[in-house]
């Protein structure tokens, strides 16, 4: 079953992913203000814990949502995730102590974590059979749009950091009635009315049984390495480049250029993967990322050439990670694709925690340059190896166990 994609599906799934980019940058922009004002007695250690527990919540939410959507459909669970995220984002600024700040961020993370994998799955299910990778990359441009929006609002609001979370929470609540009225169900459990029905219970362990075990392990490792790169670079690139002797202003410009490259990569990478093959394209994208990251470990004197290398690095690094999600729709049958997507996203979130943490250790030890780029290049190489482990998928989505792509690997 393929659901015809409507403009509302595209718009609402894209906007759902916008929240993640907005939220990550909003917290990053708010932390210096929280520390300066000592809001609720917060310390640097508290801020680190709050940021980490947020990502833990995101990872748990992503892993848990898959089996729920495979059983009950995509539409209602997605709206519940948006509701949880919005409410707990809205109340975050008024929490009176650091324990409640951390708890609220954890719960908001649970909702936020469920949003992205469900939105990407819905986009894949409403895409043409050979357009799943492009659907994934197109949806994920919303992440970067949200990050840019939060950055601009952080400048506008200045010391009034709480308004960032107010805007994020209110926009989510405003989006909910539109989703209720306009977002169609895409799962095969949908009935003739377009509302979700109920599928036999799906267990997370279903993706760890033959013939999917090899596929799942490969996806999990690739997603882990991909998000290690994305979050590690977005968190520490300016500091790494400062360690190489570049100015602060140039380092911040490079972070902007890196994310411009990300958007370019997402717009073109999915189309190439759908036409040329998802497996080969994802391996090439990870491999190119490794080469470019090694190149950045060498000090480049020419500023134009340097920014060109950073731009192209963004094209490959960010899109490689998203192509892993595009892979999922080709590898699992419909009855467990939501579980596969959620668990791949959830395990990948561990990389989002490990990447900034380990790079931070390198910064603290004075080995961030060029050591950080060696770390990132090694992660990209492991991404290539992980994707190589995955059986080559069929060109169309399998509809049942007998058509399992892993059993028909080329």
UniProtKB/TrEMBL annotation:
<dbReference type="InterPro" id="IPR011701">
    <property type="entry name" value="MFS"/>
</dbReference>
<feature type="transmembrane region" description="Helical">
    <location>
        <begin position="251"/>
        <end position="270"/>
    </location>
</feature>
<keyword id="KW-1133">Transmembrane helix</keyword>
<feature type="transmembrane region" description="Helical">
    <location>
        <begin position="340"/>
        <end position="359"/>
    </location>
</feature>
<feature type="transmembrane region" description="Helical">
    <location>
        <begin position="44"/>
        <end position="64"/>
    </location>
</feature>
<feature type="transmembrane region" description="Helical">
    <location>
        <begin position="76"/>
        <end position="94"/>
    </location>
</feature>
<feature type="transmembrane region" description="Helical">
    <location>
        <begin position="371"/>
        <end position="390"/>
    </location>
</feature>
<dbReference type="Pfam" id="PF07690">
    <property type="entry name" value="MFS_1"/>
</dbReference>
<feature type="transmembrane region" description="Helical">
    <location>
        <begin position="100"/>
        <end position="120"/>
    </location>
</feature>
<feature type="transmembrane region" description="Helical">
    <location>
        <begin position="141"/>
        <end position="157"/>
    </location>
</feature>
<keyword id="KW-0812">Transmembrane</keyword>
<keyword id="KW-0472">Membrane</keyword>
<protein>
    <submittedName>
        <fullName>MFS transporter</fullName>
    </submittedName>
</protein>
<feature type="transmembrane region" description="Helical">
    <location>
        <begin position="304"/>
        <end position="328"/>
    </location>
</feature>
<dbReference type="InterPro" id="IPR020846">
    <property type="entry name" value="MFS_dom"/>
</dbReference>
<feature type="domain" description="Major facilitator superfamily (MFS) profile">
    <location>
        <begin position="9"/>
        <end position="395"/>
    </location>
</feature>
<feature type="transmembrane region" description="Helical">
    <location>
        <begin position="163"/>
        <end position="181"/>
    </location>
</feature>
<feature type="transmembrane region" description="Helical">
    <location>
        <begin position="282"/>
        <end position="298"/>
    </location>
</feature>
<feature type="transmembrane region" description="Helical">
    <location>
        <begin position="211"/>
        <end position="231"/>
    </location>
</feature>
<dbReference type="InterPro" id="IPR036259">
    <property type="entry name" value="MFS_trans_sf"/>
</dbReference>
